[in-house]
Structure formats: structure tokens, C-alpha cells
Amino acid sequence: MTAYAPPPPAWGRRKRIYQLGVVSGLLLTACTWAAVLLGLAEPEPAARVMSLIVLVALFTPFAAMWDNTGEQRTRVQRFAEFAYSWVLLSGVIQTAFELPWFFLDLSGTIQGAGPQHHWLWMWWAYGGADTRYITSNPTIAGIEFCAGIAGPLELLACWWFRRGQRIRANWLALLLGMGLTWGTIVFFVAEIHVGCADVKQGAFGLWVKWFGLNLPWMLAPCLFIPGSIWDLQALYEHRAIERARQLGIRAAHEEPVRKKASG
């Protein structure tokens, strides 16, 4: 059995893909919103541009499965890197989008929002297609309350990952990930059940905004959940080996003492 080795820092093309995700998902989105606020861009074309930008960013964690030329990572290392990358991205989105939306919905601020409400544009850009987000849909309110609370906890798990506390980080990420997966299933099934009656803006609204922007939360668990389980298995095996080694060393030191005492 080989010794446990945590995922090495990303480099090469994987690192460039992650950097692209950060730039596109955060910087370009912020610039687009600023352009709408300043009247430099029309809300609806800008919403389509932002949707495509975010769509690209949402799939960047899947680069964790792609080795650089000459790189040889174990299966656990590839899946564990994906788990960290996905939990970080999900945590940022849940904290920055879902959690504020819940309070905007709770206060009634977001209800009936339109393209003229520029300071609500980031939420309307999606809600213009999935109108459940601008009509106070009770199913969505429940889902997003749970998702919003999960966001800061996902970021806590990432902080634990960074500090080397991988066992507690994996357990927290797993618990949150399982809950978010069920929430995503409810999200899709609830709307399919009514024939996607709440989805507007034609094919773009259906396939890019409603389906595309939420699809990663259905795909990611297929890699993230087994990745965290395998990482936990490797960590516990490593802990058991270290414990056995320490007990063996202690026994080796205590044996001469026992022999001397018995003699």
C-alpha cells in the first residue's frame, strides 16, 4: 500500500483553465453588470452574454480530470482535485447568487423585477428566463434557502482543505454535496412536471439559462461524491498505517523494559 499523497497544486493547462474560469466567471461578469449599471450596455443582450460567460466558467472544474503532458496522478488525486475545485466554485456561486436572492425574495424586492431594474440585473438576467425567480415560487424559495446556507459552509470546507484538514473537509463537502444534489433534482423535476411553463425567452432561455446553467450540479456529483469517498478511504488507511507504526515503535521500546523487569 502506497503512502497517502494529497493532490499536487495544479499547473500547466489545468491551471490556465482554472484561471480562465476565474476571469470569465468573476471579472467579466462584474464588468458586464457594471456596464449595465452605467447604461453602457442593454440589459437583455448583456444577460445573454453573461449567461454564456458563466456557462463556460461552470465547466472549468472538470479540467481536474485532465493530466498535463507527462504528468502521472493517481485516480484519487484527480478526483480529489475535482472535488476541491467544484466545492469552491459551488460555494462562491451559492454565496454570491443564491443567498442574496433568498433575502431579496423574502423581502419582496425581486418580485416583478425587469430589465429596467439595473441593480437587480444579475438576478433578473437568469430570472427573465426562469420566471420562478421573479415571482416568489415557494419551491425555489425552499431550494435556494438551503443552497444559500450551504454556500458559506462549502467555502469553510475549502478553507479546511487548504489547511490540510482533509478528513473534516471531505465529510462536510460530502454532506453538503448530497443535499445540493437532491435539491437540483427537485429543481428540474418541479418544472418539468408543469411542462416548463415558467421558462421563457425561447430556446436560449430553456437550453442555455434553465438547463445549461444548472446542468453542472447534476454532473458534478458523479465525480465529486466518489472522489471525496476515495480520498477519505485513502486518508483513513494512511491514519491506520501511521497508528500501527506508532504502536509498533512503542511496543519495540517497551519490550526491553518488560524483559529487564521480569529478569
How would you characterize this protein structure?
By secondary structure, this protein is mainly α. It has one domain. The chain is built from nine helices and no strands. It has helices spanning 12-37, 43-58, 75-106, 121-127, 138-162, 166-193, 202-212, 216-219, 221-262. Helix 5 runs antiparallel to helix 6 (166-193). The two termini are 39 Å apart.
H/I helix tally? 9
Largest sheet: none
Write down the domain tally. 1
DSSP E strands, number: 0
Helix-and-strand structural type: mainly alpha
Give the topology, please.
Elements: H1 12-37, H2 43-58, H3 75-106, H4 121-127, H5 138-162, H6 166-193, H7 202-212, H8 216-219, H9 221-262
Keyphrases for this structure?
263 residues; mainly alpha; single chain
Give a short summary of the structure.
The chain has 263 residues and is mainly α. The chain has helices at residues 12-37, 43-58, 75-106, 121-127, 138-162, 166-193, 202-212, 216-219, 221-262. The protein has one domain (12-237).
